[in-house]
Specification:
This protein is mostly helical. Helix content is 58%, strand content 11%. β2 and β3 form a beta hairpin.
């Protein structure tokens, strides 16, 4: 399997990985096992891994860690991890599912990331899985490469509500001609500035300020310090 060569995974159980990419439509047509059981296992492993990561690397309280974990293992996130590794290129799909674009269907592409992790665990154990995820998954989280997290204001609002703090956006500067103004916005939590955003619209400046505050929170220097 080219994927295993590319990821430098040496195994004597290649059939286990093949199962991780076998959709039920293909399995039914060819009398094989699908990835569903491996997906179940991988889901639990990812929950544990991200829980451990957040506990060891942040100062968040339980409520915030729960919300962040949900973001990092939701279908949108799993889809991006999977595409980053080109896992969908290995998918085995039934004729109808293939013709309907199953190779890029979000739910399926997300599922095979979990199934692949389940297969890797059964083949090589938890330590290897942790090394793999630290290499391929954590950088996407820490470098803010999860494109589905675009509404930073909503995410920040969730975190602040968990701590029962007040949140407001203050426009502190407007400059430039009327047709091309630049807005500078501060996001204040309990009247303390935690982030600044600059853009050509107030809405975008507020999103940038929220993103700045979230970045500080993840580094342990922001909201919960």
């Amino acid at each position: 399997m080219k994927l295993l060569e590319r990821l430098n995974i040496k195994t004597e159980h290649e059939s286990l990985y093949a199962q991780a990419f076998t959709h039920t439509s293909y399995a039914n047509e060819h009398g094989l096992l699908s990835y569903e059981r491996l997906e179940y296992l991988g889901d639990a492993i990812l929950e544990l891994f991200i829980s451990d990561y957040l506990y060891r690397n942040t100062e968040y309280d339980e409520g915030v860690m729960t919300k962040m974990r949900a973001h990092y293992v939701c279908e949108d996130a799993l889809y991006e991890y999977s595409l980053k590794l080109n896992l969908n290129e290995e998918l085995l799909l039934g004729k109808g599912e293939f013709e309907n674009g199953g190779k890029y269907r979000k739910a399926i592409v997300a599922d095979i990331f979990e199934a692949f992790i389940g297969a890797l665990y059964l083949d090589q154990g938890l330590e290897t899985v942790h090394k793999f995820l630290n290499t391929h998954m954590i950088p996407m989280i820490e470098n803010h490469q999860l494109d589905f997290i675009k509404d930073y204001k909503s995410l920040l609002q969730e975190l602040v509500q968990t701590d029962k703090k007040s949140l407001e956006y203050i426009t502190v500067k407007e400059e430039g001609p009327a047709h091309h103004k630049t807005f500078t916005v501060e996001v204040r939590i309990d009247q303390i500035c935690y982030g600044v955003g600059i853009a050509h619209s107030k809405k975008e400046a507020e999103q940038n300020a929220a993103k700045s505050a979230l970045n500080k929170a993840q580094d342990g220097t922001g909201i919960h310090s």
